[in-house]
Amino acid sequence: MHGVFSVQPSSPGGTVSDEDETRFGRVVADLAVENGIDHFVYSSGGAVGEKPTGMGHFDSKAHIEAHIRTLPITATIIRPACFMEMLVMPGFGLDEGRFNFFMKPDQAMQLVAVEDIGKFVAAIFADKLQFSGKTLDIASDTVTGKDLEATFTQRAGFPISYARFSEEVLEQNPFLRKLAELMDDGTLEGKADLDSCWKIIPDLQRFGDWLAKTGRPAFEAALGKSGTWAYNT
Prior knowledge:
Blueprint: E1 3-6, H1 18-34, E2 39-43, H2 56-69, E3 75-80, E4 82-83, E5 98-101, E6 108-112, H3 114-126, H4 128-131, E7 135-138, E8 141-144, H5 145-156, E9 161-164, H6 167-172, H7 174-184, H8 194-200, H9 207-212, H10 216-223
Parallel strand pairs: 1-2, 2-3, 3-7, 4-6, 5-9
Antiparallel strand pairs: 6-8
Helix pairs in contact: 1-2
């Protein structure tokens, strides 16, 4: 076995705790060392950095990153930006002709399609010399709330208005409130060098293109499906 790509479930999905995620990530890395793996690639998160965020499912990834850096193994850490797939989950109001999210209308946030993460991992495995020991923030696009309004409206064929979650919603949901705070302090904005990302993978997807193709079925489902946001713990 040449390489291991390590990615764990996290607590917002409701199936594991933050402690579980940290333990899983450390164990996988330790097993890679024990089995003489040539190249270890760990998928962390774009919000992870030198300072704790105060949110367990981000800080658990920081703990895993720190553990990997102590191990005698060739490793690369990737930090994907916000998944495009998150924007077409039911519960954000698309079925009511609106979209609510963390950003203020003029705030910008980087995005990446989940399938494009695999392209980065393949490129990393193919060039150990270039990526060995590196931590790489990855993204393919940057959007503002106003951009989302325009793109959703164009792809839906009818008006979709954008607004940040109301203060009432944020007050009632500490999880969403903390995400909004991390958006305001720049933690969730994204730190990827988009030009470098596009040089590594020339066929990355902009959000509008992804929404018209791969993301179209989920977008259409969200337009016709009410509900609450799945990640609400």
